[in-house]
Amino acid sequence: MPDKSLPPVERHPLEPFIHADTKILFLGSFPPQRKRWCVDFFYPNFINDHWRIQGMVFYNDKDHFVDLDSKKFKLDEIISHCRRLGIGYYDTATAVRRLADNASDKFLEVVEPTDIRTLISQCSQLKAIVTTGTKATDTIVESLQIPLTPKVGESVPIPILDGVCLYRLPSSSRAYPLSITKKAEAYKRMFQQFLLF
Question: Buried b vs exposed e over 70-87: b needs ≥16 C-beta within 10 Å?
């Protein structure tokens, strides 16, 4: 019988967005609550700047993926962009409990971690796993037995994956204390290292 004093278990609402040509795989912690979504995709919260940062990096336009009138992201353009460049997305947990009514990682209890090894076995061109938060980074370090945890803006090799590194970027959340311009510079350095654009 389930313990009614605990919050319910939430299962991941999205399928992994990966394919054989995925070169860069962003692995977060878990999506925010559905009420915060403006699109059915990763980084769906309209006030998260992930897609604005990518607009700045690749198109020199913060609003390239933003539909300002509808306060949504342009999902078709995002998917086309990610497929063309080989950018994939998923999260390090497939089931969680939210211990508070917010999207903060520190209030997420991981009930079922993602099988990261099986996930990345589908990405034969993989060059980097990218994280933007402490919980996701720590989960991957533990799961893949990486001896060093990268600092923000740095990468470390993944010993069990020849030629693949774990790269840590600043969070695209507005709560992270860094300007969007500085974040875009950090993301651009990473993308330039692994993609030709």
Answer: eeebbbebbeebbeebbb
Give the DSSP letter string of 122-167: T-TT--EEEE-SHHHHHHHHHHTT-SSPPPTT-EEE-TTSTT-EEE
Q: 9-194 has which CATH code? A: 3.40.470.10
Domain limits, the chain: 9-194
Which residue has tokens 């399928």?
Answer: 15
Residues near 164 by beta carbon (within 8 Å), at least 6 away in sequence: 120, 126, 127, 128, 129, 157, 158
Q: What is the pLDDT of residues 48-107, one digit of tens each?
A: 999 999 999 999 999 999 999 999 999 999 999 999 999 999 999 999 998 877 666 778
> Rounded to an integer, what distance in angstroms lies between the CA atom of residue 83 and that of residue 140?
24
Give me the count of residues in the chain.
197
pLDDT at 197 over 70: no
For the segment 94-137, what is each residue's pLDDT rounded down to a tens digit? Answer: 999 988 776 667 788 889 999 999 999 999 999 999 999 898 99
Per the confidence metrics, is the pTM higher than 0.90?
Answer: yes
Angle at 33 between CA 31 and CA 35, to 5 degrees: 130
Give Dmax (Cα) for the chain: 54
